[in-house]
Amino acid sequence: MKITLTCNTGLGTGGQGVCLENAALGLNKLGDLTVFCSGLTVPKTDFTVYPVGNSPWSKRLLSTPILRRRNDWAVLLSDLYFDHQVSEKLKSYPCDLIMGVAGQTNLAFKAAKAQGAKAWLYCLNNYLPFMQQQIQQELDFLSDPTVATMNPKMLKRFAEECQQADLIIVLSEVAKQTFIQAGLAPEKVKVVTPFVDTQKFHPTVKNDQVFRVLYVGTIEPRKGIPYLFQAFLQADIPNSELLIVGGASTRGLRQFMTETLNKHTNIKQEFWNFSQDDPTEVFGKSSVLVLPSVEDGFGLVALEAMACGLPVIVTSNCGVADVVNHGINGFIAPPRDVKTMANQLRFLAENESIRREMGKVARINSQQYNQALYQHRLRKIFLEQDLITPIFN
């Protein structure tokens, strides 16, 4: 069986790229896999990879001062370019199954289905209109609201992709519920939880007494950073620090970060490249990781933190809440609930032995989410969809 996987990012680059790599490793064991991704570099893999370059339209828009704030158009143009390139390639590389990332695969679906292929939509976020609704509530923190909105044409493409898809793959039960609430049939939406490399992500010894709260990721409207700042300051923990690892995606948020860092010396910002730097260094000097997102299809960094022996605090709108056992390996808070997050931070700071024990349990729990489990779940879906034949002993 010939399988095509498409995603407008690089293999292993960022959260989306890691999820793409997860999927590629799993699909490669179930058929003859071809991956179409962005960029120009061909990585060394056991399957065929076709980088289709980067959108010149998007690049031109972002280089034009008067237009660069329209990030919604930049994303749309990038995805349209990628989708068009892949759909043209599929005329020469037909497949039996195409699995494409939401918002990036409308034309490719049409091209593949015209040749008789099955189409699976790979959605790395929650249902996109739900995601848009959550982002809209965060616009008060931005100087220019246009940068945070999702282009209406993107939402239209997503709706068409959902209609074309024979199946929708999501990363969590949290994400699945947003699709069901939007009216999609439960049997059309399947969950395949990402896995974590527990050899790369492992516990290390913390060398100071600072209660360090960690956030890792892009600073963007849906990530709920202002609520984390408020919770950290409200908790008022002695000898504490909030470490933000990542850059801001908008001018308004960059300004917000600058003002916050200047005002509060115990809030710091660092920049890491986890594809090159050792991630255990930043996790190893931290006490807890917080993912305060108002919307997140999963939040792989929380599972990575758990693998490093950290308890985590996540919101109920994060897909990774699926793997958090409240009060056992971390805490789950309602989105935007500053008081609850502050109380959870204070509890962990005041109860070091409990915090350490929660971290140990988090490490053990993270080991369950491995490549073997991922492969088992993916294979089960293939069997249910009659794409492969069962092997009987």
TrEMBL record:
Residues 201-363 form the Glycosyl transferase family domain. GO terms for molecular function: glycosyltransferase activity. Residues 14-199 form the Glycosyltransferase subfamily 4-like N-terminal domain. Transmembrane segments: none annotated. Pfam families: Glyco_transf_4, Glycos_transf_1. This is Glycosyltransferase family 4 protein.
